[in-house]
Design a protein that fits this description.
With 72 residues, the protein is mostly helical. It has 5 helices and no strands.
Length: 72
Amino acid sequence: MHVDAPIRFFGNATKAAAAIGVNVSNMTRWKQKRDGIIPADQAVRFVLASKYMLDLGWDDYADAKEDQKQAA
């Protein structure tokens, strides 16, 4: 899930962060240091907070799965 999805859904970064109980600085950090991709565990929390209206976006995490396979 890209950080822009919950921001659009909840209205702004502050409301999005509050919806899952994290500091708004996490939104900025994810945007800057993770190429805008929210960590999977936090993305699941956004899906639940949105009552399944947000899509987890499994394609965003495909590279991480591939990296794990190569490391093994």
